[in-house]
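Priority: medium. Attachment 1 of 2:
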């Protein structure tokens, strides 16, 4: 499968690596961002230099009006949607649950971005890709975290809970739309050398991981694009750990 792809959080980290690799594999890409339009535009220019079309669209994926506008922009400027990668997310910092930083406000923001910010784009993608709505099918990959498997106690159990929701959502949605031409899968990265990591975490934790290092963003992108592609045509509802054996 090639065609048009939306990558949320596409201006940085795993999202940016996915957007760039997608262009190498023949996709036109919508690079979503919230505040750093300069970085999203840099990714767009790199994609265009590869001979593919790309647009940068500002949208807070936790807000339905923004999500609706983003998908309408893709309809007009790129055309038929074929795939969605939900890469936008936050960690909200490292601490125990009983730290004073963990407040109702922090949790509400974490749930909004990591959970609603995955579910809402999926809803709007389904409205376009599902054969029940006149679409021709497509593929969705949600970016979860290995934290939902290992628990991450003493690190960020609040973040872990938000990513556990993505595991469950992926499994349920895959069953819901399997007969409508849509595949839904989830990748669970381990510690990856991107700016989502708190300062010093990659250097501290990397040597203690099974491979002796943290992952690179492009290693996650290659798994995501395999799951999006027709090479994984019978894979749906899968939770794929890409964590170096964690």
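Attachment 2 of 2:
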């Amino acid at each position: 499968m090639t065609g048009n792809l939306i990558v949320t959080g596409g201006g940085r980290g795993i999202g940016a690596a996915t957007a760039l690799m997608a262009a190498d594999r023949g996709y036109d890409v919508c690079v979503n961002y919230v505040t750093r339009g300069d970085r999203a535009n840099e990714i767009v220019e790199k994609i265009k230099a590869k001979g593919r079309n790309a647009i940068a669209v500002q949208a807070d994926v936790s807000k339905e009006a923004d999500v609706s506008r983003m998908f309408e922009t893709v309809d007009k400027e790129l055309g038929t949607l074929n795939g969605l990668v939900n890469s936008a997310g936050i960690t909200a910092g490292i601490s125990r649950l009983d730290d004073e930083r963990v407040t109702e406000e922090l949790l509400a923001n974490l749930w909004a971005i990591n959970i609603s910010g995955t579910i809402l784009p999926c809803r709007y993608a389904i409205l376009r890709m599902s054969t029940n709505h006149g679409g021709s099918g497509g593929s969705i990959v949600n970016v979860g975290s290995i934290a939902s498997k290992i628990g991450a106690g003493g690190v960020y159990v609040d973040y872990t809970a938000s990513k556990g929701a993505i595991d469950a959502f992926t499994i349920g949605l895959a069953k819901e739309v399997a007969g409508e031409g849509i595949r839904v899968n989830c990748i669970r990265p381990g510690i990856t050398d991107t700016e989502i990591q708190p300062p010093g975490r990659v250097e501290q934790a990397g040597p203690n991981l099974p491979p002796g290092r943290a992952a690179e963003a492009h290693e996650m992108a290659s798994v995501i694009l395999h799951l999006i592609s027709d090479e994984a045509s019978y894979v749906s509802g899968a939770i794929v750990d890409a964590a170096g054996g964690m």
